[in-house]
Amino acid sequence: MSIGHTFLGLLESGPRHGYDLKKTFDDRFGHARPLHYGQVYATLSRLLKDGLVELDGVEPGEGPERKRYAVTSAGVSDVELWLASAEKPEPYLQNTLYTKVILALLTGRSAADLLDVQRAEHLRLMRELTRRKAGGDLADNLICDHALFHLDADLRWLELTAARLDDLRRQVRA
Amino acid sequence: MTGQPLLEADGLHKAFGPTKALDGASIAIRAGEIVAIMGPSGSGKSTLLHCLAGIVRPDSGHVRYQGAEISAMTDGERSALRRTQFGFVFQFGQLVPELTCLENIALPLRMEGVRRREAEARAAEWLDRLHLADVGRKRPGEVSGGQGQRVAVARALVTRPQAVFADEPTGALDSLNGERVMRLLTEAARETGAAVVLVTHEARVAGYSDREIVVRDGRTRDIAREMEEAL
Ligand SMILES: Nc1ncnc2c1ncn2[C@@H]1O[C@H](COP(=O)(O)OP(=O)(O)OP(=O)(O)O)[C@@H](O)[C@H]1O
Ligand SMILES: [Mg+2]
Description:
The complex is a heterodimer.
Chain A: H1 3-11, E1 16-17, H2 18-30, H3 37-49, E2 53-58, E3 67-71, H4 73-84, H5 96-106, H6 111-135, H7 138-163, H8 165-173
Chain B: E1 7-16, E2 19-29, E3 34-38, H1 45-52, E4 60-65, E5 68-69, H2 75-85, E6 86-89, H3 101-111, H4 116-129, H5 145-157, E7 163-167, H6 175-192, E8 195-199, H7 203-206, E9 211-216, E10 219-221, H8 223-230
Parallel strand pairs in B: 3-8, 3-9, 6-7, 7-8
Antiparallel strand pairs in B: 1-2, 1-4, 4-5, 9-10
The complex binds adenosine-5'-triphosphate and magnesium ion.
Magnesium ion (MG) binds near residues 45, 46 and 167 of chain B.
Protein backbone atom coordinates (compact mmCIF):
# COMPACT_ATOMS: atom_id res chain seq x y z
CA MET A 1 0.00 0.00 0.00
CA SER A 2 1.23 3.47 -0.76
CA ILE A 3 1.42 5.29 2.56
CA GLY A 4 2.52 8.48 0.83
CA HIS A 5 -0.51 8.69 -1.43
CA THR A 6 -2.80 7.87 1.45
CA PHE A 7 -1.28 10.70 3.53
CA LEU A 8 -1.74 13.11 0.64
CA GLY A 9 -5.40 12.12 0.36
CA LEU A 10 -5.93 12.53 4.10
CA LEU A 11 -4.30 15.98 3.98
CA GLU A 12 -6.78 17.18 1.36
CA SER A 13 -9.31 17.90 4.10
CA GLY A 14 -6.84 20.24 5.87
CA PRO A 15 -3.34 20.46 7.38
CA ARG A 16 -2.43 17.96 10.12
CA HIS A 17 0.38 16.97 12.45
CA GLY A 18 2.29 13.78 11.80
CA TYR A 19 0.83 12.17 14.88
CA ASP A 20 -2.71 12.95 13.74
CA LEU A 21 -2.00 11.49 10.28
CA LYS A 22 -0.68 8.30 11.81
CA LYS A 23 -3.69 7.94 14.06
CA THR A 24 -6.20 8.46 11.26
CA PHE A 25 -4.28 6.09 9.01
CA ASP A 26 -4.16 3.39 11.72
CA ASP A 27 -7.85 3.77 12.52
CA ARG A 28 -9.00 3.56 8.95
CA PHE A 29 -6.43 1.43 7.19
CA GLY A 30 -4.13 -0.12 9.78
CA HIS A 31 -6.26 -3.16 10.68
CA ALA A 32 -4.24 -4.17 13.69
CA ARG A 33 -0.97 -3.30 11.95
CA PRO A 34 -0.24 0.28 13.02
CA LEU A 35 2.43 2.40 11.31
CA HIS A 36 5.74 2.96 13.07
CA TYR A 37 6.63 6.57 13.81
CA GLY A 38 9.77 6.02 11.76
CA GLN A 39 7.64 5.17 8.71
CA VAL A 40 5.46 8.22 9.29
CA TYR A 41 8.28 10.73 9.45
CA ALA A 42 10.31 9.12 6.67
CA THR A 43 7.25 9.31 4.42
CA LEU A 44 6.54 12.92 5.34
CA SER A 45 10.10 14.05 4.75
CA ARG A 46 10.07 12.36 1.33
CA LEU A 47 6.79 14.09 0.43
CA LEU A 48 8.31 17.38 1.64
CA LYS A 49 11.42 16.92 -0.46
CA ASP A 50 9.30 16.10 -3.55
CA GLY A 51 7.19 19.21 -3.03
CA LEU A 52 3.99 17.23 -2.51
CA VAL A 53 3.48 18.62 1.00
CA GLU A 54 4.71 21.79 2.68
CA LEU A 55 5.07 22.92 6.26
CA ASP A 56 1.99 24.74 7.36
CA GLY A 57 3.54 26.12 10.49
CA VAL A 58 6.09 25.10 13.03
CA GLU A 59 5.17 25.70 16.63
CA PRO A 60 8.00 26.71 18.94
CA GLY A 61 9.79 23.88 20.74
CA GLU A 62 11.59 20.70 19.89
CA GLY A 63 10.73 17.48 18.06
CA PRO A 64 8.72 16.41 15.03
CA GLU A 65 5.39 16.88 16.84
CA ARG A 66 5.66 20.62 16.31
CA LYS A 67 5.27 20.47 12.56
CA ARG A 68 2.03 20.71 10.66
CA TYR A 69 1.85 19.53 7.06
CA ALA A 70 -0.34 20.73 4.20
CA VAL A 71 -0.79 19.15 0.78
CA THR A 72 0.42 21.19 -2.22
CA SER A 73 -1.36 21.36 -5.57
CA ALA A 74 1.31 19.02 -6.97
CA GLY A 75 0.38 16.68 -4.11
CA VAL A 76 -3.31 16.79 -5.01
CA SER A 77 -2.53 15.96 -8.65
CA ASP A 78 -0.41 13.07 -7.44
CA VAL A 79 -3.26 11.49 -5.42
CA GLU A 80 -5.63 12.05 -8.30
CA LEU A 81 -3.30 10.21 -10.66
CA TRP A 82 -2.88 7.36 -8.15
CA LEU A 83 -6.63 6.90 -7.68
CA ALA A 84 -7.24 6.96 -11.44
CA SER A 85 -4.63 4.34 -12.30
CA ALA A 86 -5.39 0.62 -12.04
CA GLU A 87 -3.56 -1.53 -9.51
CA LYS A 88 -1.62 -4.35 -11.05
CA PRO A 89 -3.44 -7.59 -10.20
CA GLU A 90 -1.39 -10.12 -8.24
CA PRO A 91 -0.33 -12.88 -10.64
CA TYR A 92 -0.57 -15.48 -7.81
CA LEU A 93 1.79 -17.78 -9.67
CA GLN A 94 4.34 -18.30 -6.91
CA ASN A 95 2.34 -20.23 -4.42
CA THR A 96 3.53 -22.31 -1.49
CA LEU A 97 0.40 -24.44 -1.48
CA TYR A 98 0.93 -25.38 -5.09
CA THR A 99 4.53 -26.29 -4.36
CA LYS A 100 3.50 -28.42 -1.40
CA VAL A 101 0.86 -30.32 -3.39
CA ILE A 102 3.25 -31.12 -6.23
CA LEU A 103 6.02 -32.09 -3.85
CA ALA A 104 3.69 -34.38 -1.90
CA LEU A 105 2.66 -36.09 -5.15
CA LEU A 106 6.26 -36.37 -6.34
CA THR A 107 7.37 -37.95 -3.08
CA GLY A 108 4.41 -40.29 -2.69
CA ARG A 109 2.98 -38.49 0.34
CA SER A 110 -0.71 -37.75 0.91
CA ALA A 111 -1.67 -34.57 -0.89
CA ALA A 112 -5.28 -35.09 0.21
CA ASP A 113 -4.26 -34.81 3.86
CA LEU A 114 -2.26 -31.70 3.16
CA LEU A 115 -5.29 -30.11 1.50
CA ASP A 116 -7.61 -31.12 4.35
CA VAL A 117 -5.31 -29.62 6.95
CA GLN A 118 -5.03 -26.42 4.95
CA ARG A 119 -8.79 -26.20 4.57
CA ALA A 120 -9.23 -26.46 8.34
CA GLU A 121 -6.69 -23.68 8.86
CA HIS A 122 -8.33 -21.42 6.28
CA LEU A 123 -11.75 -22.02 7.82
CA ARG A 124 -10.45 -21.11 11.23
CA LEU A 125 -9.43 -17.68 9.97
CA MET A 126 -12.65 -17.30 7.98
CA ARG A 127 -14.67 -17.92 11.16
CA GLU A 128 -12.68 -15.29 13.00
CA LEU A 129 -13.28 -12.74 10.22
CA THR A 130 -16.98 -13.65 10.04
CA ARG A 131 -17.30 -13.05 13.79
CA ARG A 132 -15.48 -9.75 13.47
CA LYS A 133 -17.93 -8.66 10.77
CA ALA A 134 -20.89 -9.26 13.08
CA GLY A 135 -19.48 -6.79 15.61
CA GLY A 136 -18.11 -4.25 13.13
CA ASP A 137 -19.33 -1.31 11.11
CA LEU A 138 -19.69 -1.27 7.34
CA ALA A 139 -16.05 -0.25 6.72
CA ASP A 140 -14.96 -3.17 8.91
CA ASN A 141 -17.22 -5.47 6.94
CA LEU A 142 -15.69 -4.27 3.69
CA ILE A 143 -12.12 -5.16 4.64
CA CYS A 144 -13.14 -8.47 6.23
CA ASP A 145 -15.09 -9.38 3.10
CA HIS A 146 -12.06 -8.61 0.98
CA ALA A 147 -10.06 -11.09 3.04
CA LEU A 148 -12.91 -13.63 3.10
CA PHE A 149 -13.31 -13.65 -0.68
CA HIS A 150 -9.59 -14.22 -1.13
CA LEU A 151 -9.56 -17.06 1.37
CA ASP A 152 -12.63 -18.45 -0.35
CA ALA A 153 -10.76 -18.41 -3.66
CA ASP A 154 -7.92 -20.38 -2.08
CA LEU A 155 -10.37 -22.92 -0.76
CA ARG A 156 -12.07 -23.37 -4.10
CA TRP A 157 -8.69 -24.03 -5.58
CA LEU A 158 -8.00 -26.56 -2.83
CA GLU A 159 -11.29 -28.35 -3.55
CA LEU A 160 -10.67 -28.45 -7.27
CA THR A 161 -7.14 -29.71 -6.71
CA ALA A 162 -8.38 -32.38 -4.30
CA ALA A 163 -10.85 -33.54 -6.95
CA ARG A 164 -8.03 -33.78 -9.52
CA LEU A 165 -5.44 -35.48 -7.35
CA ASP A 166 -5.60 -38.87 -9.07
CA ASP A 167 -5.02 -37.37 -12.53
CA LEU A 168 -2.38 -35.03 -11.16
CA ARG A 169 -0.49 -37.84 -9.46
CA ARG A 170 -0.31 -39.78 -12.74
CA GLN A 171 1.00 -36.78 -14.67
CA VAL A 172 3.45 -35.58 -12.05
CA ARG A 173 4.99 -38.99 -11.54
CA ALA A 174 5.00 -39.97 -15.22
CA MET B 1 -16.56 -34.05 24.13
CA THR B 2 -18.34 -33.93 27.50
CA GLY B 3 -21.95 -34.76 28.25
CA GLN B 4 -24.46 -36.44 26.00
CA PRO B 5 -24.69 -34.95 22.53
CA LEU B 6 -28.06 -33.69 21.33
CA LEU B 7 -27.81 -35.73 18.19
CA GLU B 8 -25.38 -38.47 17.32
CA ALA B 9 -24.78 -40.69 14.32
CA ASP B 10 -22.41 -43.60 14.54
CA GLY B 11 -21.09 -45.83 11.75
CA LEU B 12 -23.81 -45.02 9.22
CA HIS B 13 -24.02 -47.00 5.99
CA LYS B 14 -26.52 -46.24 3.29
CA ALA B 15 -26.56 -47.53 -0.29
CA PHE B 16 -28.83 -46.56 -3.14
CA GLY B 17 -28.57 -49.59 -5.39
CA PRO B 18 -24.88 -49.98 -6.16
CA THR B 19 -24.04 -46.46 -4.89
CA LYS B 20 -22.61 -46.27 -1.39
CA ALA B 21 -23.89 -42.86 -0.29
CA LEU B 22 -22.66 -43.35 3.30
CA ASP B 23 -19.84 -45.70 4.15
CA GLY B 24 -19.29 -45.49 7.89
CA ALA B 25 -20.17 -41.86 8.66
CA SER B 26 -20.22 -40.58 12.24
CA ILE B 27 -21.00 -37.19 13.74
CA ALA B 28 -22.05 -35.75 17.09
CA ILE B 29 -23.90 -32.48 17.51
CA ARG B 30 -24.08 -30.76 20.88
CA ALA B 31 -27.03 -28.64 21.96
CA GLY B 32 -26.85 -25.13 20.52
CA GLU B 33 -23.79 -25.57 18.32
CA ILE B 34 -23.57 -24.77 14.64
CA VAL B 35 -21.81 -27.48 12.65
CA ALA B 36 -21.01 -27.22 8.96
CA ILE B 37 -20.96 -30.39 6.87
CA MET B 38 -18.68 -29.85 3.90
CA GLY B 39 -17.31 -31.93 1.09
CA PRO B 40 -17.50 -32.45 -2.68
CA SER B 41 -20.69 -32.99 -4.63
CA GLY B 42 -22.00 -36.53 -4.29
CA SER B 43 -19.92 -37.26 -1.18
CA GLY B 44 -23.00 -37.99 0.95
CA LYS B 45 -23.67 -34.71 2.80
CA SER B 46 -27.40 -34.58 2.13
CA THR B 47 -27.81 -38.28 2.85
CA LEU B 48 -26.08 -37.78 6.20
CA LEU B 49 -28.35 -34.85 7.02
CA HIS B 50 -31.43 -36.86 6.05
CA CYS B 51 -30.34 -39.74 8.29
CA LEU B 52 -29.71 -37.36 11.20
CA ALA B 53 -33.14 -35.82 10.75
CA GLY B 54 -34.92 -39.17 10.60
CA ILE B 55 -35.99 -38.65 6.98
CA VAL B 56 -33.87 -41.49 5.59
CA ARG B 57 -33.28 -44.75 7.43
CA PRO B 58 -29.66 -45.93 7.24
CA ASP B 59 -28.93 -49.54 6.23
CA SER B 60 -26.84 -49.90 9.36
CA GLY B 61 -25.44 -47.77 12.15
CA HIS B 62 -27.09 -45.71 14.88
CA VAL B 63 -28.75 -42.31 15.03
CA ARG B 64 -29.63 -41.12 18.52
CA TYR B 65 -31.56 -38.01 19.48
CA GLN B 66 -31.12 -37.14 23.17
CA GLY B 67 -29.97 -40.71 23.65
CA ALA B 68 -33.01 -42.31 21.97
CA GLU B 69 -32.48 -44.51 18.90
CA ILE B 70 -34.36 -42.89 16.02
CA SER B 71 -34.61 -46.07 13.95
CA ALA B 72 -36.38 -47.80 16.87
CA MET B 73 -39.20 -45.25 16.74
CA THR B 74 -42.48 -45.79 14.92
CA ASP B 75 -43.18 -43.68 11.84
CA GLY B 76 -45.60 -41.63 13.95
CA GLU B 77 -43.01 -40.99 16.65
CA ARG B 78 -40.44 -40.03 14.05
CA SER B 79 -42.68 -37.55 12.30
CA ALA B 80 -43.70 -36.07 15.67
CA LEU B 81 -40.00 -35.66 16.44
CA ARG B 82 -39.44 -33.86 13.15
CA ARG B 83 -42.47 -31.63 13.70
CA THR B 84 -41.74 -30.61 17.29
CA GLN B 85 -37.96 -30.82 17.73
CA PHE B 86 -36.55 -30.12 14.28
CA GLY B 87 -36.72 -27.31 11.75
CA PHE B 88 -35.71 -27.48 8.08
CA VAL B 89 -34.31 -25.04 5.53
CA PHE B 90 -33.51 -26.29 2.04
CA GLN B 91 -32.11 -24.67 -1.06
CA PHE B 92 -35.57 -23.95 -2.51
CA GLY B 93 -39.04 -25.28 -3.09
CA GLN B 94 -40.00 -25.73 0.53
CA LEU B 95 -42.76 -23.14 0.91
CA VAL B 96 -46.38 -24.00 0.09
CA PRO B 97 -47.14 -21.88 -2.99
CA GLU B 98 -50.87 -21.50 -2.25
CA LEU B 99 -50.32 -20.00 1.21
CA THR B 100 -49.14 -16.48 2.03
CA CYS B 101 -45.69 -16.11 3.58
CA LEU B 102 -47.29 -15.43 6.95
CA GLU B 103 -49.40 -18.60 6.66
CA ASN B 104 -46.32 -20.56 5.61
CA ILE B 105 -44.48 -19.48 8.74
CA ALA B 106 -47.52 -20.30 10.89
CA LEU B 107 -47.98 -23.73 9.28
CA PRO B 108 -45.75 -25.79 11.62
CA LEU B 109 -47.60 -24.30 14.60
CA ARG B 110 -50.97 -25.07 13.02
CA MET B 111 -49.83 -28.68 12.51
CA GLU B 112 -49.07 -28.84 16.21
CA GLY B 113 -52.64 -27.77 16.91
CA VAL B 114 -52.02 -24.11 17.75
CA ARG B 115 -55.11 -21.98 16.91
CA ARG B 116 -54.91 -19.81 13.81
CA ARG B 117 -54.94 -16.44 15.57
CA GLU B 118 -52.22 -17.44 18.01
CA ALA B 119 -50.13 -19.15 15.30
CA GLU B 120 -50.28 -16.12 13.00
CA ALA B 121 -49.43 -13.74 15.81
CA ARG B 122 -46.31 -15.75 16.56
CA ALA B 123 -45.50 -15.98 12.85
CA ALA B 124 -45.84 -12.19 12.58
CA GLU B 125 -43.19 -11.74 15.30
CA TRP B 126 -40.81 -13.78 13.16
CA LEU B 127 -41.62 -11.68 10.11
CA ASP B 128 -40.47 -8.61 12.00
CA ARG B 129 -37.43 -10.30 13.35
CA LEU B 130 -36.26 -11.36 9.88
CA HIS B 131 -37.08 -7.93 8.37
CA LEU B 132 -39.95 -9.35 6.33
CA ALA B 133 -42.83 -7.22 7.59
CA ASP B 134 -43.93 -6.21 4.07
CA VAL B 135 -44.02 -9.69 2.52
CA GLY B 136 -46.38 -11.36 5.02
CA ARG B 137 -49.42 -11.16 2.77
CA LYS B 138 -47.58 -12.16 -0.41
CA ARG B 139 -47.35 -15.69 -1.72
CA PRO B 140 -43.92 -17.34 -2.17
CA GLY B 141 -44.12 -16.83 -5.95
CA GLU B 142 -44.34 -13.08 -5.40
CA VAL B 143 -41.20 -12.58 -3.28
CA SER B 144 -37.48 -12.59 -4.13
CA GLY B 145 -35.28 -15.62 -3.56
CA GLY B 146 -33.61 -13.99 -0.57
CA GLN B 147 -36.95 -13.07 1.01
CA GLY B 148 -38.24 -16.59 0.37
CA GLN B 149 -35.24 -18.08 2.18
CA ARG B 150 -35.77 -15.78 5.14
CA VAL B 151 -39.41 -16.92 5.24
CA ALA B 152 -38.10 -20.50 5.28
CA VAL B 153 -35.76 -19.63 8.18
CA ALA B 154 -38.68 -18.13 10.09
CA ARG B 155 -40.77 -21.21 9.42
CA ALA B 156 -37.94 -23.48 10.60
CA LEU B 157 -37.53 -21.59 13.87
CA VAL B 158 -41.12 -20.68 14.75
CA THR B 159 -41.63 -23.87 16.79
CA ARG B 160 -38.39 -23.17 18.71
CA PRO B 161 -36.82 -26.47 17.63
CA GLN B 162 -33.77 -28.05 19.27
CA ALA B 163 -32.12 -28.59 15.90
CA VAL B 164 -32.34 -26.89 12.53
CA PHE B 165 -31.23 -28.79 9.43
CA ALA B 166 -30.14 -26.54 6.60
CA ASP B 167 -29.08 -28.04 3.26
CA GLU B 168 -27.40 -25.42 1.06
CA PRO B 169 -29.70 -22.70 2.42
CA THR B 170 -27.94 -20.01 0.38
CA GLY B 171 -27.22 -22.14 -2.69
CA ALA B 172 -29.51 -20.12 -4.95
CA LEU B 173 -28.66 -16.67 -3.59
CA ASP B 174 -26.09 -14.00 -4.45
CA SER B 175 -23.39 -13.06 -1.91
CA LEU B 176 -25.29 -10.23 -0.26
CA ASN B 177 -28.54 -12.15 0.19
CA GLY B 178 -26.70 -15.30 1.19
CA GLU B 179 -24.97 -13.33 3.90
CA ARG B 180 -28.25 -11.86 5.19
CA VAL B 181 -29.84 -15.30 5.37
CA MET B 182 -26.82 -16.79 7.17
CA ARG B 183 -26.64 -13.92 9.64
CA LEU B 184 -30.32 -14.09 10.46
CA LEU B 185 -30.34 -17.88 10.64
CA THR B 186 -27.34 -18.10 12.95
CA GLU B 187 -28.38 -15.15 15.15
CA ALA B 188 -31.88 -16.55 15.58
CA ALA B 189 -30.52 -20.02 16.29
CA ARG B 190 -28.14 -18.64 18.94
CA GLU B 191 -30.94 -16.66 20.55
CA THR B 192 -33.30 -19.64 20.70
CA GLY B 193 -30.53 -22.11 21.59
CA ALA B 194 -31.14 -24.29 18.54
CA ALA B 195 -28.31 -26.40 17.14
CA VAL B 196 -27.78 -26.01 13.39
CA VAL B 197 -26.59 -28.74 11.03
CA LEU B 198 -25.50 -26.80 7.99
CA VAL B 199 -24.68 -28.57 4.74
CA THR B 200 -22.71 -26.32 2.42
CA HIS B 201 -19.88 -26.48 -0.05
CA GLU B 202 -19.24 -22.75 0.31
CA ALA B 203 -16.49 -21.78 2.73
CA ARG B 204 -17.93 -18.33 3.31
CA VAL B 205 -21.16 -19.95 4.49
CA ALA B 206 -19.24 -22.39 6.68
CA GLY B 207 -17.61 -19.32 8.25
CA TYR B 208 -20.80 -18.89 10.27
CA SER B 209 -20.37 -22.29 11.92
CA ASP B 210 -18.54 -23.24 15.12
CA ARG B 211 -16.74 -26.15 13.46
CA GLU B 212 -16.82 -28.27 10.33
CA ILE B 213 -17.02 -31.94 9.48
CA VAL B 214 -15.79 -33.02 6.07
CA VAL B 215 -17.52 -35.82 4.16
CA ARG B 216 -15.60 -37.63 1.47
CA ASP B 217 -16.81 -40.82 -0.26
CA GLY B 218 -19.47 -41.34 2.40
CA ARG B 219 -17.02 -41.09 5.31
CA THR B 220 -16.69 -38.25 7.79
CA ARG B 221 -13.56 -36.54 9.08
CA ASP B 222 -13.18 -33.99 11.83
CA ILE B 223 -9.88 -32.53 10.68
CA ALA B 224 -9.71 -29.60 13.09
CA ARG B 225 -10.07 -32.07 15.95
CA GLU B 226 -7.46 -34.43 14.50
CA MET B 227 -5.07 -31.47 14.22
CA GLU B 228 -5.67 -30.54 17.85
CA GLU B 229 -5.17 -34.09 19.02
CA ALA B 230 -1.95 -34.36 17.02
CA LEU B 231 -0.44 -31.42 18.93
N1 LIG C 1 -32.58 -41.14 -3.54
C1 LIG C 1 -31.48 -41.53 -4.15
N2 LIG C 1 -31.48 -42.50 -5.08
C2 LIG C 1 -30.35 -42.92 -5.68
N3 LIG C 1 -29.13 -42.43 -5.42
C3 LIG C 1 -29.05 -41.43 -4.50
C4 LIG C 1 -30.20 -40.94 -3.83
N4 LIG C 1 -29.80 -39.97 -2.97
C5 LIG C 1 -28.46 -39.87 -3.11
N5 LIG C 1 -28.01 -40.74 -4.03
C6 LIG C 1 -26.59 -40.91 -4.40
O1 LIG C 1 -25.83 -41.02 -3.22
C7 LIG C 1 -24.61 -40.26 -3.32
C8 LIG C 1 -24.57 -39.20 -2.24
O2 LIG C 1 -25.57 -38.25 -2.52
P1 LIG C 1 -25.86 -36.96 -1.64
O3 LIG C 1 -27.06 -36.32 -2.17
O4 LIG C 1 -25.85 -37.34 -0.21
O5 LIG C 1 -24.56 -36.10 -1.96
P2 LIG C 1 -24.21 -34.59 -1.57
O6 LIG C 1 -22.89 -34.62 -0.88
O7 LIG C 1 -25.35 -33.96 -0.85
O8 LIG C 1 -24.01 -33.92 -3.00
P3 LIG C 1 -24.37 -32.43 -3.51
O9 LIG C 1 -23.29 -31.53 -2.97
O10 LIG C 1 -24.28 -32.54 -4.98
O11 LIG C 1 -25.74 -32.07 -3.00
C9 LIG C 1 -24.59 -39.72 -4.74
O12 LIG C 1 -23.85 -40.57 -5.54
C10 LIG C 1 -26.04 -39.72 -5.15
O13 LIG C 1 -26.17 -39.88 -6.53
MG1 LIG D 1 -26.71 -32.41 -1.30
